[in-house]
Amino acid sequence: MSTSLLQVQDLSVYFKEAQGTKQVLNKVSFSVDRGQTVALVGESGSGKSVSALAIMGLLPTDLAEIEVNSQINWQGNNILHLAKEQHRKLRGRHIGMIFQDPMSSLNPVMSVGEQLIEGIQLHLGLSARQAYERAIALLTEVGIPEPERRIHAYPHELSGGQQQRVMIAMAICGEPQLLIADEPTTALDVTIQRQILELIKLLTKERHMAVLFITHDLALVGEFADQVVVMRQGVVRELGDTEHIFKEAVDSYTKALLLCRPSLTHRPLHLPVVEEMMMMKSDRNTASHQEERQRGIRPTDEMVMRVRKVSKNFVQQDGLFKRKDFFAVKEVSCDIYRGKTLGIVGESGSGKTTLGLMLSGIIPMSSGTIEYHEELKKLEGSPALIQIVFQNPYASLNPRFTVFQILEEPLLLHRPDLRVEQRAEEVVALMHLVGLNESMLSRYPHEFSGGQRQRIAIARCIALKPTILVCDESVSALDVSVQAQILNLLQDLQDRFNISLIFISHDLSVVRYMSDEIMVMYQGTVVEKGNSDQIIAHPQQPYTQNLITSIPKGYAI
């Protein structure tokens, strides 16, 4: 008797477009057994989420078409032809799903308890009192502190990690046999990411529940998955046991994915990029054989910015009539050197972004001083001194502007001496500098991928040739392969223009690759600072040690 809960066989899906149909899945096949964790791995556009939505019966019928010969067998029965009502009963009760962005998946005008109770009553048919008690038990099970109080909270009152825990509680409230987790830890801190993964792992064991785990990060699944399915452009490129995939990968795409994530043990001049590696058909040792990039601050390096005891406090309402000060950043001091990178790392709420916004001049300091090198003092307050690249490029680019207008705007504002033809030449040069074609200048931001939008954001920042560039979580939401491209681009720009980088991230492996010095922040204060290699190899503080041990290492890539 087969132990397979789910069998996907020759699944082909087409999307209807104005020009015709586009195939997004091509004969995808894999299975998930009882109690097993299977990881679907690949870049954006590989078909991972489309596969999950097809299993859940959530593909829009007016936009998507499934080929007749495709099969999705749940416990031996093809569920592709179920009526809507039958599929609805299957969802939640037998198959649960955690979506990528909890804030957009949770109803903002309902408390988390109301949303959880609604699912419990729908799937288990309990009374209101029983459902409330069950909701408290579920919030406790997924590690929500003070569940009796948090059950009345609204989604915006919870942290990102807590929101994701609520989503997990909602996904398992019907006691499903299969849990589909679609990028459940993207953009979460490494410590919170590990907590969420450990929670899913624990629930799998306790409930004997199968998991279909969707991610773009192979290192992430190395510690948690039993089997790996590697997908690219709607096709399964490789499938097998996790240990076999990590140690004896056959497909060039799998090998490239394994290598493009920054390592904690070596720092090549350039990170391997998927497309380049597939063309070279290199083996998995290529990156380690590259020349190492040297990092560190030398006594002869020139200081461009001196930050001393910078603090930022916000006033919070405490009850009806009381207010209290909350220090987001407290007495932080650091030095920025020409052509060097200071990495700032820490969890959400550690004060990284607030510090970056103060250094960029976007928000004022409450106290402290920032001094610049003598030749830069005349640029103080000018966009030519310091620029910032934000985490979400789509939110920071004007959706009503073409790329040409986006890149021309800083030149119009701050380089009025340039003629129309000169501005056009500058814009084209900026596009080439960040690896984009000038034929794209008439397009709008929504017509680009996330990685391309981030390149445009970087091009806009360097239009005024700043001395210092602040990168605030600028690669955290990108696929590992696109992340490698953006990190290489930032490094090339630093090499070419001798730009000083302030690189803010929660990912220590990325920070270690980019930084000469690392500053670790916790609750607004600096807990550790020093040479990047020394911080990683010999962390002194328990907080830093915890951050390092939380980094997913797979099978010792």
Summarize the model shown.
The chain is α/β, with parallel strands linked by helices and 557 residues long. It contains 22 helices and 20 strands.
First-residue to last-residue Cα separation: 37 Å
Q: Write out the CATH superfamily name of the domain at 303-549.
A: P-loop containing nucleotide triphosphate hydrolases
Task: Tell me which CATH architecture of the domain at 303-549 applies here.
Answer: 3-Layer(aba) Sandwich
CATH class of the domain at 303-549: Alpha Beta
Contiguous low-pLDDT stretches (5 residues minimum) are none
Characterize the main sheet.
Answer: 6 strands, mixed
Instruction: Report the strand count.
Output: 20
Structural class: alpha/beta
Strand content: 25-35%
Key structural traits:
22 helices, 6-stranded mixed beta sheet, 25% strand, single chain, 557 residues, alpha/beta
